[in-house]
Write a structure and sequence with these properties.
single chain, alpha/beta, Rossmann fold, eight-stranded mixed beta sheet, binds iron/sulfur cluster
């Protein structure tokens, strides 16, 4: 599973690079320096800003709903979404509606949302050939800022292949380059956070993997500088870490949040549409319902001489190794390939429906 791989290999390694001890906490609640294994509630009023990373998936939505259930002051919250494909024209990886869905989700709760991305997105980074990574683009309350690379420290590099299942972050790079790194720079480069107490929220759950089960629920964030010159206090909090999937769907139901489209199509996990960890069933479903959607991926595999699959089977052949899901949600199918999100976000009338992908294991696993 993507999460298992992230948890066991990628995140701990990244954490070490950032000087953090992620996922190795002792199962007790008496950890030092603001570190708590279990912190299902925190004093939300103690924070000046609450930044909630919203992917558009059920767990990040549940994190928001949990805050609402805890009586959060809406004036303190802002949502952050990282655009995997960037905003420069690439449509290689993500669902076309992803940005607009998140925009409309934020609007439904009357919350500000700020997008951020690596210029050129996944595709631009993948095509790096003896060249430098591009700048980060960060939306802020004062407008869009561009964070250039520090050329005194940057080195030219080459990718020219899809992220690979590997312990080496140079080869398995998408989560860190397109999400974690973008969020880190967005925090570090806005002086509105200096001297402030910031709560940085993500939606991991212990149930998802054995390593995630050991995560701390509250701890200083990698960008915390509470004792530094900037006096920026940043806590990382995972408000649904202890929740079951049942609790997540129950929260969406109680708040009338209609299931995001991928779950309605039968995906058990929320990921990029063409996530490199898609299993054969998902590739088969994409090929069957969205003919031609895999061709660009297949063309890149041929150009690079390297497939996404570590078994060296190209994506089109992998898609023939399984039967597609049976999708009967016509509305969701129609929405799937549109960039404008036109379905309702909140259920106003009628009965709330558990989606086909709820409790399914299909969706995202190593090929
Ligand atoms: S391709 Fe998969 S692992 Fe990579 S950023 Fe997208 S969802 Fe995450």
């Amino acid at each position: 599973m993507t999460h298992s791989y992230d948890d066991l290999i990628v995140i701990p390694k990244l954490g070490r690079q950032l000087g953090l001890n992620l996922g190795n906490a002792m199962p007790q609640n008496s950890l030092a320096h603001g570190v708590y294994f279990s912190a299902p509630t925190v004093d939300l009023d103690a924070y000046d800003r609450i930044v909630l990373c919203i992917s558009g998936g059920k767990d990040s939505i549940a994190s928001l709903l949990n805050l609402i259930d805890q009586g959060v002051d809406f004036n303190r919250i802002e949502l952050w979404h990282h655009d995997v494909d960037g905003r420069e024209g690439s449509t290689l990886m993500d669902w076309p509606f992803m940005a607009d869905y998140n925009r409309k989700l934020a609007a439904a709760f009357e919350l500000p949302i700020y997008f951020s991305w690596l210029e050129g997105g996944f595709e631009g980074e993948m095509l790096k050939e003896n060249s430098y990574s591009r700048p980060h683009k960060i939306e802020t309350p004062d407008g869009l800022i561009t964070l250039e690379r520090d050329m005194s420290r940057a080195k030219p590099g080459t990718r020219m292949r899809f992220p690979q299942v590997s312990a080496n972050l140079q080869t398995r790079w998408c989560s860190s380059a397109l999400k974690i790194d973008v969020g880190r720079r967005a925090l570090n480069n806005q002086d509105r956070f200096d001297g402030q107490k910031v709560l940085f929220i993500t939606g991991e759950r212990r149930e998802e993997s054995s390593n995630r089960a050991k995560y701390n629920q509250l701890e200083p964030h990698a960008c915390d500088r509470r004792n530094g010159r900037k006096a920026r206090h940043v806590d990382a909090w995972r408000p649904v870490l202890h929740w079951s999937e049942e609790q997540v769907w129950d929260a969406l139901k109680r708040h009338g949040v209609i299931s995001p489209v991928p779950y309605r199509l039968g995906w058990g996990r929320f990921s990029c549409m063409k996530c490199v960890f898609n299993d054969a069933v998902i590739w088969a479903t994409l090929r069957y319902y969205f003919p031609g959607s895999l061709q660009t991926i297949a063309d890149y595999e041929q150009r690079f001489g390297t497939t996404i699959s570590r078994n060296r089977i190209n994506v089109l052949d992998v898609s023939h190794q399984a039967q597609p899901l049976e999708v009967d949600d016509i509305e969701a199918l129609d929405q799937a390939m549109r960039s404008e999100y036109t379905l309702p976000v909140i259920q106003r009338n009628g009965e709330w429906k558990l989606p086909a992908g709820a409790f399914a294991k299909t969706g995202c696993g190593p090929v």
